[in-house]
């Protein structure tokens, strides 16, 4: 049976082979597809009015909002107006540790860190090792290794230990399980089937798992009694989980979580998903400068013209160009980004030059990350979730 989510995307025919679900993503959606998903599922597009609301609450707007990377939301307006009247909220996001992390994986975390800094909010980061065990052909031993590595990658962005709480599902099983069963009682098999596209041959753990992913969305109120709203930044493939959570949480006495939703990140080769079986499908955080350069020059999908002459004459389509898109996500100076866009579009910059600019930016970013990764290695314990830590 097909997931409703997939049908809405208009991917019904390719869906059989290449499902677009929370566990498998093909990053080739157009803006129209994104709008369609948002509309169908009742998420709202972030409009100029909400953007101004964010600006006034945060003191500034992150470029990921103005450039459309985070493009939709649920009840963010409500959360912000509560915030304006003095009510706190907390943040929740996560990572499934199924392999090494690439640049695209970090984008939601970069944005989440901005939210944490601007709002001084507590942040729960769920590491779903149980999910990867149930959904992927991986052994716990490997998943554990990725868990440790991925945590270092995430923390190297500079989260603060005082209000950042990393929850590894298998390590906090006692706490999470007791909350997850409260959710699971309200999810029947037919709903899980409809929303996620499961069939009778899927293992029973998969049907249960979404209950685990719902828990951090009410864990702070559940453990502390504090009536704080929860804001979840995520890429749109995770939306089915939070649709279910929004359905169930009010039934067990909690508020629906709010969300801020991003598009998928651009793929190096322009289409297809970044996969660990093809090391050239993405730029990994441990790629050294030479490897980055090689991947960029050889594989990065270009929106430029076939020849330098044509490029000078007609200009590029930066929107579909990997180098431009990743540069746009890593360069904080929006003035610079606009200038590069302009020049590339009108043909003053050649495709190779665009790749060069992006390569330098990526290498600079990765180098800083790796330096901080080593610093943070001895401090990981300070970030681990504990009841005592969230109580204070
Ligand atoms: N299921 C997500 C993944 O596979 C991990 C995750 C758990 C998550 N909780 C989340 C992602 C909340 C975003 C927001 O990567």
From TrEMBL:
Keywords: Aminoacyl-tRNA synthetase, ATP-binding, Ligase, Nucleotide-binding, Protein biosynthesis. Transmembrane segments: none annotated. SUPFAM superfamilies: Nucleotidylyl transferase. One of its GO terms (molecular function) is tryptophan-tRNA ligase activity. Gene3D superfamilies: HUPs (3.40.50.620), Tyrosyl-Transfer RNA Synthetase (1.10.240.10). GO terms for biological process: tryptophanyl-tRNA aminoacylation. GO terms for cellular component: cytoplasm. It is an enzyme of class 6 (ligase). It holds the Pfam family tRNA-synt_1b. Its EC number is 6.1.1.2. The keyword Nucleotide-binding applies. Belongs to the class-I aminoacyl-tRNA synthetase family. This is Tryptophan--tRNA ligase.
């Amino acid at each position: 049976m097909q997931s409703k989510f997939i049908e809405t995307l208009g991917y019904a025919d390719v869906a059989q082979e290449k499902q677009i679900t929370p566990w498998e993503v093909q990053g080739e959606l157009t803006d129209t597809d994104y709008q369609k998903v948002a509309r169908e599922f009742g998420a709202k597009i972030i409009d100029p009015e909400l953007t101004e609301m964010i600006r006034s609450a945060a003191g500034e707007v992150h470029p990921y909002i103005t450039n459309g990377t985070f493009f939709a939301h649920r009840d963010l307006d409500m959360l912000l107006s509560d915030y304006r009247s003095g009510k706190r909220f907390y943040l929740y996001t996560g990572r499934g540790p199924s392999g090494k992390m690439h640049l695209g994986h970090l984008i939601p975390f970069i944005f989440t860190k901005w939210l944490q800094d601007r709002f001084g909010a507590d942040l729960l980061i769920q590491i779903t090792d149980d999910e990867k065990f149930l959904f992927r052909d991986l052994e716990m031993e490997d998943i554990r290794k990725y868990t440790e590595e991925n945590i270092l990658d995430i923390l190297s962005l500079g989260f603060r230990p005082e209000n950042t709480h990393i929850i590894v599902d298998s390590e906090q099983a006692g706490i999470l399980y007791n909350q997850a069963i409260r959710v699971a009682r309200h999810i029947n098999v037919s709903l899980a089937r409809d929303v996620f596209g499961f069939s009778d041959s899927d293992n029973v753990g998969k049907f249960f798992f979404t209950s685990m992913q719902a828990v951090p969305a009410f864990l702070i109120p559940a453990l502390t009694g504090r009536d704080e709203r929860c804001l979840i930044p995520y890429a749109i493939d995770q939306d089915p989980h939070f649709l279910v959570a929004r359905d169930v949480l009010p039934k067990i006495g909690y508020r629906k979580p709010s969300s801020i939703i991003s598009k998928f990140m651009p793929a190096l080769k322009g289409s297809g998903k970044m996969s660990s079986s093809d090391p050239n499908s993405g730029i990994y955080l441990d790629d050294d400068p030479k490897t980055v350069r090689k991947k960029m020059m050889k594989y990065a999908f270009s929106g430029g013209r076939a020849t330098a002459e044509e490029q000078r004459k007609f200009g590029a389509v930066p929107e579909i160009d990997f180098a431009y898109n990743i540069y746009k996500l890593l360069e904080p100076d929006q003035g610079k980004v606009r200038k590069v866009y302009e020049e590339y579009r009108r043909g003053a910059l050649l495709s190779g030059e665009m790749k060069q600019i992006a390569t330098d930016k990526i290498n600079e970013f990765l180098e800083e990350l790796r330096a901080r990764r080593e610093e943070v290695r001895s401090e990981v314990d300070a970030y681990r979730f504990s009841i005592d830590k969230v109580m204070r």
